[in-house]
Amino acid sequence: MPSQEFLDYQAAMAKAAAENPPPEFTTEQDRREHIDKMLGQRPLADGTIAQPADADGVFSIWVMPEEISSDNNCPVVCYFHGGGYRIGSAAAWQPFGSHLAKTCGAKVLLVDYRLAPENPFPAAMDDALCAYRWLLEQVAPSRIVLAGDSAGGGLAPALLLAIRDAELPLPAGCASLSPWSDLTNSGDSFTTNSQTDFLFSKELAEEAAAIYLAGQDPKHPYASPVFGDWNGLPPLLIQAGSIEVLEDDARNLAAAAQAAGVEVRLKIFDGMPHVWQHGYPVFPEAVNAMEDIASFVADMAA
Fold first, then answer.
1. Contact in structure between 41 and 92 (CB atoms under 8 Å)
2. Contact yes or no for 199/275 (Cβ under 8 A)
3. Mean per-residue pLDDT for 219-241?
4. Is residue 20 part of a domain?
5. Are 104 and 298 in contact (CB under 8 A)?
6. Mean pLDDT score of the chain, rounded to an integer?
């Protein structure tokens, strides 16, 4: 049963949306700028700082608690934003990343991978792998945890497959939040949760997948990690809400990894919608999810 704080938060968000409906977008760039302004204007977590980074040509942003800014031995979270591979940015996810950094006591690198339709698959993966190679020059792999939400929650575990295939040192683990991990969009929860998920839908998923894939195979493991070979890969934390259409993407990703002997912590949060973690610290379910991520990072990153 969702908390009263969550129900109040949902009601407030619905009221705000009704009073200030989003504008009609004529271009994808208009949509991106609206999202960036809406999310990026939120304040950073108290005591955190943000710094731009050039990850070998891939623009990124470091966010971290100020007190660990000079600590070269703290955990590092390499994070990939959501947005269906066509919207979203490191700047828009900067406030959320700052809360993640503070909760985990870690430095968070927000990777600004290229977006479709201008840059279709595998551009996002190419940028993710480039940023990871750069990060290996700064940080021991044993201190790195990959993470992401929604599309980024699929990109992060797909990156594990690409890192292994490139014969690079593997990170310590991967946290995947509300992952879009199957671009065939065939999970039953697209139907069973269609009336409870107001952020994502089968229609939106199919539209976004077509734009991102641009005719390429939706079962390619770098696009849909549920179809990958998971042998020998590091532990996963997978979070999903019980009322979101991507619940089965989370369950199926966990099943694929577990079948190969990978350690998986699958957490399905009752009554939670898509990427509810972004509500931190307003309601307890978001706090619990963030603390769960922090526990995973502490356990994995030496």
1. no
2. yes
3. 98
4. no
5. yes
6. 96
List phi, psi (to 5°) of 44.
-70, 155
Give the count of domains, the chain.
1
| CATH at residue 80 | 3.40.50.1820
Which pLDDT tens digit goes with each residue over 192-202? 999 999 889 99
- Enumerate residues 6+ apart whose C-beta is below 8 A from 285: 2, 3, 6, 269, 271, 272, 276, 279
Residues identified as active-site: 150, 244, 274
Which residue bears the tokens 């577990």? Answer: 258
Between CA 45 and CA 99 the distance in angstroms is 5
Assess if residue 5 is contained within a domain. no
Question: Is residue 21 included in any domain, yes or no?
Answer: no
Nearest residue to 134 via CA among 55, 237, 189, 67: 55
Confidence class for position 1, pLDDT limits 50, 70, 90: confident
Give a yes or no: residue 19 inside a domain.
no
CA–CA separation, 57 and 131 (whole Å):
8
pLDDT tens digits along 4-34: 999 999 999 889 888 888 788 888 898 899 8
In the sheet with 58-65, reading across from the earlier edge strand, the strands are 48-55, 58-65, 107-111, 76-80, 144-149, 173-177, 236-241, 264-269
- Give residues with Cβ within 8 angstroms of 200, minimum separation 6: 150, 180, 244, 245, 246, 274
The domain of 227 spans 27-300
| Whole-model pTM over 0.85 | yes
User: Smallest Cα–Cα separation from 51: which of 35, 71, 69, 36?
Assistant: 69
CB atoms within 10 A of CB 5: 15
